[in-house]
Amino acid sequence: MTVTDPRNPTVPPSSRPSLAVWKFASCDGCQLTLLDCEDELLAVADQLDVAFFLEASSASVAGPYDVSLVEGSITTEEDRARIQEVRAQSKTLITIGACATAGGIQALRNTSDVSEFLRIVYATPSYISTLETSTPIADHVSVDFELRGCPIDRQQLLEVIGAYLVGRTPNTPGHSVCVECKQQGNPCVLVAHGTPCLGPATQAGCGALCPSYLRGCYGCFGPAETPNPHSLGATLLEAGLPPDELQRLFHTYNAWAEPFRGAVQVPTPTHRRPATQQENTR
């Protein structure tokens, strides 16, 4: 497609692919990961037009867009309508981060009384307009690829953008953090120290950051390809982890991700979200 800058229509349109970056309910950390690419970002900018990215610039170019990166979950009626508009003007839509792919830490509201939260926190709860749930983007529109992490890994992000620029499927890991621990030469913190760890059930991507410092994995990258959280949970209970602590362990950044939510007996919603390309190609 071609993109013409509406601020200066005399400038010839560009034939490079256009990129848009969108924010929904999130902390902006995944967008900052893109900005932190620094030199690599300059190389990416040479291959495409960054048409809409409010985290980096207030200037914007009207769509449609070849690729949209979407950060954040859906928590309001306004955002539920806005994501439909984003999908309509995006040839390829990629969700980035735990909020966009699994509802994020704010999805803890999904098993609680939101009205009670509003009553406790806000002096005038009637001023607040919010949904009862925080849900991933794929619950509302079709998604072409999911890039997980809290925050995402910059090398994986560059891989995904590069893959779509040349028309191939991105190559991101589906194995667990345990593989990364072996690559780093780390002793297993669960076996060696009895430290609760979600590494066996969590998708790789962080380079086994926490276990490298003798801390258990927190599940930042969501479920691995074959996570078996029920088996891991049983092992942790046998090791002496109290049931309430096991629930808190799974209830963090990816609490609403399947199958993490099922591992702690969280009620499953009646609807099913459409499969993503990432899930279909594995």
How many structural units, i.e. domains? 2
Assign the structural class, choosing from mainly alpha, mainly beta, alpha/beta, alpha+beta, or little secondary structure. Answer: alpha/beta
The residue fraction in helices comes out at 25-40%
The number of strands is 5
The pLDDT mean sits at 87
CATH arch. level architecture of the largest domain: 3-Layer(aba) Sandwich
Strand order of the largest sheet: 2-1-3-4-5
CATH topology of the largest domain: Rossmann fold
Radius of gyration (Å): 20 Å
Instruction: Detail the poorly predicted runs.
Output: 1-12, 266-273
Major sheet, described briefly?
5 strands, parallel
Proportion in β-strands: 5-15%
Number of helices: 12
Q: What characteristic shape results from the CA principal axes?
A: globular
Task: Note down, in words, how this protein is organized.
The chain is α/β, with parallel strands linked by helices. It has helices at 29-35, 39-47, 77-88, 98-102, 114-121, 154-166, 177-184, 189-193, 229-238, 243-250, 260-263, 277-280, and strands spanning 18-23, 49-53, 65-71, 90-96, 145-147. Helix 2 runs parallel beside helix 6 (154-166). The longest helix is centred in the middle third of the chain and has 13 residues, at 154-166.
